[in-house]
Specification:
homodimer; about 350 residues; alpha/beta; 434 Repressor (Amino-terminal Domain); Rossmann fold; four-stranded parallel β-sheet; 12 helices; 12 strands; DNA-binding
Chain lengths: ~350, ~350
DNA sequence: AGCGTCACAGCAAGCGCTTTCTATCGGATA
DNA sequence: TATCCGATAGAAAGCGCTTGCTGTGACGCT
């Protein structure tokens, strides 16, 4: 029914071992023999049996990429960059690896299950992107899993995620705290003193770090934060819309709104407009990430640009063993403040 | 070193066969035995060897999702919906399947290679999303591959992609032609007579169908199209920006610009604004897809909404055998015209 | 001429699991 | 009490491939 290595061997009049060696190309095979084998492969339309190969060789060519939300360009862009480096087909040199993107939906359980699934497949490498959930037991479970993966020879890389000490994982971390601080300082510099903050979901490292940066900036400038100035929500547009309405309700005198990310900021803009407020004349708005659409918002969004593509590419190369891990196995990647039209001096 | 089935069996004092049966749960095992085995699995922290299992059982739990550009929300949204249904971990019932997203980058070769890789992994199902490349030899190669996959028992579903006759693939197709026509008719209805069109890359089914719809509308209303009114480009914002500038150069009297998709439309809006033109007073703009950010554009984008999530979910269910394929194995999914602020009557 | 050296090719032993077929055992039935 | 049957458990044969080790001629060296 299906063509096997043995069939090819028979056709080429060589042993299965030879066919295997031709296909894997890590053992001397005479040119004429190789030629003959290749022809047989072609004629028979042979396709290697992945599982069998992985079993025998005790390795597979699967590389897992875990993302929190594949529908979010933040992850899409990183995944794309990672995958480009992993190779998949068309990548640069190296064996062909199947880079697979796994969507955890931000759920700790799914994250764990995917890791198990990848472990089960004996993945060659795993890249985890984006913020982690801070729930202690879960974090411990993930750490344990990562260690096990690393021990089993799977290269583990964290991209845009805080380091996981003692797991053997390489971490490329975004400086969310620094970015958050810089952003808010920019606003304060413009004269804002009453700033609302729309945070992401609680218990997420990204959420916490950005918020900490924001608060550090406030504190550094002697601004006492009103507890009502912070609202938590999801990392999407709708959440930003609702949260902004809530902020306005709590304190109509706010002159600036800082959002957890660009999507949230867009929702905030919509809410402000719907409330009859002008941006930035009445209220300034700032986002985070600098996703492609942010520059097209009207006014264009002041935000912190994160080098998503570059970080992803680097993570991909490290996962493939094509680039040295950073010293200490941890690298911090800084964002860049992008001042655009959505931020300006406060009214009055 | 690694824990195997045999280790678990030894620990639980049963045969490997029994352990396997407990794990797969399709054979009667006494409750107490099962209990004992499960405990051993737990204590040993056993993880099934996927390749070995796939080899022995001649099936795997991998499901491939091919997308043209994972950084594009169009695909991200579909992939997300598909994956949610495939299960992956956390999906509803059914065995746990590893839904993997493969990024072809729109390249025919990579598409083919990914299909081979999935075939090699003996994937349980494959979902191909988005438009296909129209290059004849390539189309034939893909068709052949799909047939082979289907023959090997892999369920093949096309989502947002034209049918592939005689391949055994189920197709859920978007009515791009109808949507394109409706959109342009809306513009014509507003009084526009000189409409620019920014098409996607040539040789893509999606590009062609949308353009055909546009032209059908023009023709139906007796409008003779100027050859300079159409510009081809990529499906991204920058391309839209450049193409719009080009259109304006060719014919400054255009009163409307129809874009291949929303990202392109956003780029078009930016170019128009930068050229000192107001939307829609001077030029109306229309997009396609209705991605989440489209409603936040200023003015919000008139576009054709495609039920990406719904289609993806359905494709996922069909791929899992959880929903009946449509009669004739082909279903056409219509878009819905969303009239918003970016379209209005022409000036004068 | 004699023999170590290469360069290749084949043998065969698994890799860790699934699954068919074959026991086994405690009733239930006659 | 002898027989049969359903419910379980085990033995063992692979699944298709990789790879360490073992030939085996052809060469080149002394």
């Amino acid at each position: 029914m299906t063509v096997t290595l043995a069939d090819v061997a028979a056709r080429a009049q060589v042993s299965p071992a030879t066919v295997s060696r031709v296909l894997n190309g890590n053992y001397p095979v005479a040119a004429t023999t190789r030629e003959r084998v290749l022809r047989a492969v072609d004629e028979l339309d042979y396709v290697l049996n992945g599982p069998a190969s992985a079993l025998a060789a005790a390795t597979s060519d699967l590389v897992g990429i875990l993302v929190n939300d594949i529908a979010d360009p933040f992850f899409g862009i990183m995944a794309s960059a990672i995958q480009a480096e992993i190779g998949g087909p068309g990548g640069r040199a190296g064996g062909e690896r199947l880079a697979v993107v796994c969507n955890t939906g931000g759920s700790p359980e799914r994250e764990l299950t995917y890791l198990t699934l990848l472990q089960r497949q004996r993945a060659a490498a795993v890249v985890l992107t984006g913020g982690a959930v801070e729930d202690a037991p879960h974090a411990a479970a993930v750490a344990a899993k990562l260690r096990k993966l690393a021990d089993a020879g799977t290269r583990v890389v964290l991209c845009g995620r805080p380091p996981a000490p003692d797991t053997g994982a390489i971490a490329l971390t975004f400086d969310n705290r620094g970015g958050g601080r810089e952003l808010t300082e920019h606003l304060i510099g413009l004269g804002h003193r009453r700033l609302g903050y729309i945070a992401g979901p609680e218990e997420r490292t990204t959420t916490r770090h950005r918020l900490e940066g924001h608060r550090a900036a406030l504190e550094a400038h002697g601004i006492t934060e009103d507890p009502g100035w912070t609202v938590h929500g999801r990392y999407d547009r709708q959440s930003g819309y609702e949260a902004t309405l809530e902020l306005l309700r709590r304190d109509p005198s706010l002159t600036a709104v800082v959002a957890a990310n660009d999507s949230v900021a867009l929702g905030a803009c919509a809410a402000l407009r719907d409330s009859g407020l002008r941006i930035p004349e009445d209220v300034s708005v700032a986002g985070f990430d600098d996703l492609p659409f942010s520059i097209d918002a009207v006014p264009s969004l002041t935000t912190v640009r994160l080098p998503l593509s570059e970080a992803g590419a680097r993570a991909g190369r490290i996962a493939m063993g094509r680039e040295e891990p950073p010293p200490g196995e941890i690298a911090t990647i800084r964002g860049e403040l992008m001042v655009r039209g959505s931020s300006g001096g406060p009214r009055k």
